[in-house]
Amino acid sequence: MVMASRQRRTRRFGIGRRLAALLLGAAMAVAGLAAAPPAVTAEAPWVSVDENGFVTFTISAEEAQSTFGDFSQIVAEGNFGPSANWAQWGLARRGANWTSVMGPLEPGLYYYQFTADDTNVVKDPTNPTSVASEPEWSTFFVPGDSADLLADVPEGSGGAVETMTYRSTVTRGERSALVWTPPGYDADRSEPYPVLYLQHGGGQGHRDWVEVGRAKQIFDNLTLRGEMEPMVVVMGDGNVADFQKELLRNIMREARHDYNISHSPSQQALAGLSMGGGQTLATLSERPGEFAYLGVFAGARNLTTIDAEKINEGTELLRLYTGNVTDGAHNRTYRLMQQLDAAGVEYQFDGVNPDRGHNWNAWQENLIDFAPRLFQKVDDDGPSPGHLPLEGEFTLPPTGTTPTPWITEDRFVTFETTTDFKDAEHVTVWGNWAPGGSWIRVEMARVGDRWRATIGPLKPGFHHYRLIVDRVSTKDTSNPTRVTSEPTWSTFFIPGEEARLLADVPEGQGGTVETMTYQSTVAGAERKAYVWTPPGYDPNRAEPYPVFYLQHGGGQNYTDWIEMGRAKQILDNHFLDGNLEPMVVVMGNGNSSNFTRELRENIVPVSLERYNISDEPSQRALAGLSMGGGQTYTVLKAFPGEFAYIGTFSAGFGSATGVDAQAINDGTTLLKIYVGDPTDFVYPSFINSLAVMDQLGIDYEYDGPTPGPHGWDAWQKNLIDFAPLLFRSE
Questions:
Q1: For residue 542, how many other CB atoms are within 10 A of its CB?
Q2: Residue 684 half-sphere exposure toward CB, CA atoms < 13 A
Q3: Domain enclosing residue 703, as ranges
Q4: Interstrand relation of 620-625 and 547-551 (parallel, antiparallel or unpaired)
Q5: Pairing between strand 55-60 and 47-49?
Q6: GO molecular-function annotation terms (predicted)?
Q7: Under a CB-based contact definition with an 8 Å cutoff, are residues 47 and 56 in contact?
Q8: Same domain as 508, residue 629
Q9: Distance between CA atoms of 43 and 626, rounded to whole angstroms?
Q10: Which end of the chain lies in a sparser environment, N or C, as judged by fewer CB atoms within 10 Å?
Q11: Which of 358, 373, 388 is the last residue of a domain?
Q12: 122 - beta bridge partners?
């Protein structure tokens, strides 16, 4: 299967002197724990995090040009994707900057780099943090209750991290390890401290557990809480041909010489992630009883030798960990467990982490679970809360036979291209699965003459995506869905209770969507609108139906509320739930040089002619998103009282000049306004609009930001809230 986590090292071409200086600065930082300042500084930070977990990326156009040269796109790559896997977050050119806002991010540590045009990789020169094994990476921390064990403890209350240097008989050179000693460590204590040897993964180094794994913070917090036995932790360099020899003859020998630690196997633990987990298993197999406690974090491997009797006799704890199906160790862990079960080896399994892949977020959680189990009695040996059983391997159909996308019951989605892109160099799938429903890209990997990627778990709801092939937006032709206004987009739906109002109702129970064709006197051409009529609509009913005119945004069309906004599903479900007054909904074409005229001279009169709807202002509503919201405000200002119900989604009020606030208030039963969270780029202007409307004395309702960006995830929520408010006497 194809992993969504970062397994490749980005190619670097044409980076130039500035990056060379950055790499030199990062290399110099290896010698000490405190990161050296970046070789190049900028006028303002490229990354800032607010108190609510929203992250703003901003690079001035001048700095971007001097850093990357000529380019067409910039992305921030990091652990931003589903399951905390590696993904690409695009920056947009706005004014003098390349910028974007992401979030809200879950509390935790994030690592990232900037990449232009897929290959031109640069470390953030404004961020002094560094990762020795990944010179392009920088980090930032988002605080919060769920990440309190990853936060720094008060200064002076934590343990100490030191560099231990030793001579290796394996490499025949000088090597280093990091050593954490607990608060109050006593080199002369009569009872030696127990010791944990903690190993990194492939492509990493001995500093990673501190620089990315937050090991110091984890050990500090667990110790201060009294949840972890005071111990010494040695983080060695596992990048050697013979790890066991390096560990037993070099790392352990030097650690015993330099620190007051026990030599007894019962007071020794060994754990590692990925490659380090495999090294831990090999040590268990080949030298059973050397370490009483062993932890394997996503590092499963096939064991050639298993002496179950010796392993069980010499092992107090063997605990296995794995992430979800995007973790490359997921299937190997299942096979390892089958092998251990068959051999009669006693072990514990932490369960499948449903929300993490093969990444540092998972391994931090593994360490938090594992460390308190060492050198003390622990009653609970079951999986972590919310973790799932591992009942089998995750397998995909052979290439060329997989529906696109292929969706599992637990909401993992696999995308596969056709063979049309077998010669492409870089392919990503870009969809609305970032926090809040923003767009984010996940790399696809070549499988034969196709490309594949598995991501998830995705939240229930309506998802849209496109392929990016060598920086060109491309339609997934294997997916028959289409979006008229966005020819390269495809869609799919993941069912679930939280998305129930977006799901199709049983066939025959919903309303009807028809196309209304008319001649526009403004456009001088034939135009179309979609019209939804409720179940049981009666064109001859004595009492005309109220009518709701619902408008799209810029770059969109009358088709979008049906194809992207799930308007039919929302209206159908609300009606069947008894939450919606029977009404007719007209979705017109707002792409007009004068929308107010188009609405009043064409859309409204033709709707009155074709459908049994009221012409009373009290029975008419008007709402729109983005551009359509601005058009709605324009109509409200110019003709207050023509529509008793007004809704605007992600739009600003605009100028106060000539506005008759009293007429608006007198003629409007409901003015309800909506905006996305700070990832919605109109959020600042919207907030300014509130002050303008307050100053004018206009009555409106605003319930606070809608979680989500300037996109359909937010606008669907707006329609879900707004439609049931219409035409109700209460």
A1: 6
A2: 2
A3: 501-725
A4: parallel
A5: antiparallel
A6: acyltransferase activity, transferring groups other than amino-acyl groups
A7: yes
A8: yes
A9: 33
A10: C
A11: 373
A12: 114
CA 386: distance to chain centroid? 19
Give the Cα separation of 97 and 91 in Å (integer): 9
Q: Is 3 contained in some domain?
A: no
Task: Classify residue 112 by its DSSP letter.
Answer: E
Contact between 196 and 271 under an 8 Å Cβ cutoff? The reply is: yes
> Do residues 506 and 483 both lie within one domain?
no
Torsions phi, psi of 477, nearest 5?
-70, -10
Total domains in the chain come to 4
Write out the E strands in 182-297: 195-199, 232-235, 268-273, 293-297
Query: Locate tokens 């007051």: which residue?
Result: 260
Q: Which amino acid is at 405?
A: P
Q: In Å, how far are 561, 588, 611, 644, 671 from 546, measured between CA atoms?
A: 19, 16, 11, 11, 17
Instruction: Check which CATH number belongs to the domain holding 222 and give it.
Output: 3.40.50.1820
**104 cis-preceded (ω within 30 degrees of 0):** yes
Instruction: State what percent of residues in the chain have pLDDT above 90.
Output: 92
Within a domain: 27: no
Question: Rounded to 5 degrees, what angle do the CA atoms 715, 720, 722 make?
Answer: 90
In a domain, 395, yes or no: no
Residue 477, domain CATH? 2.60.40.10
Q: Provide the residue type at 421 as one letter.
A: F
* Pair (426, 544) in one structural domain: no
How many CB atoms within 10 Å of residue 13?
9
The Cα-based distances of 595 to 548, 584, 628, 648, 674 in angstroms read 16, 20, 9, 15, 21
- Token pair, residue 729, equals 């006497």
Q: Which stretches in the chain have pLDDT values below 70?
A: 1-43, 730
Element (H, E) at 28: helix 17-29
Are 596 and 537 spatial neighbours (Cβ–Cβ below 8 Å)? no
Cβ–Cβ < 8 Å for 237, 198: no
* In a shared domain, residues 193 and 129: no
Taking the alpha carbons of 320, 322, 328, 333 in that order, is the dihedral positive or negative? positive
Are both 574 and 589 inside the same structural domain? yes
481/466 Cα distance (integer angstroms): 12
Average per-residue pLDDT in the chain? 93
Q: Are strands 74-78 and 108-116 parallel, antiparallel or unpaired?
A: antiparallel
Is the backbone peptide bond immediately before 405 cis, with ω within 30 degrees of 0? yes
